[in-house]
Amino acid sequence: MKFDMNKMLQEAQRMQEELAKAQEEAATEIVEASAGGGMVTVKANGAGEVVSIAIDRRAIDPDDPELLADMVLAAVNEALRSAQTLMESKLGGSLGGLGLPGL
User: How many whole angstroms separate alpha carbon 54 and alpha carbon 81?
Assistant: First the structure.
């Protein structure tokens, strides 16, 4: 069987285009996570960028700012995990089962 370099390059180009399209699509989708029973809500896009943070007034306790910080941190981390999962699901179909580590 003869190795066809042109065919391999064309396939690599096609995969690169599919990956770019999947990344663009994921970047426009929004995921949401909350903490503290919904007192802190964070939205992030599929590109892993936090796009909004909403804090209920009841979450603001001047005597316990650490609790608010913990809720914000928990919600941000969960939103970013959800964004990563979204990106992985979008890219998974484009990779055709190659399973590249780190995505």
Answer: 18
Q: How far apart are CA 4 and CA 66, in angstroms?
A: 61
Secondary structure (H, E, C), 91-102: HHHHHCCCCCCC
Residue 89 in tokens: 């699901």
3-state SS assignment for residue 11: helix
Q: What is the pLDDT of residues 48-93, one digit of tens each?
A: 999 999 999 999 999 999 999 999 999 999 999 999 998 888 777 6
What does pTM read for this prediction?
A: 0.72
Q: What is the DSSP letter of 63?
A: T
46 with 81: CB under 8 angstroms? no
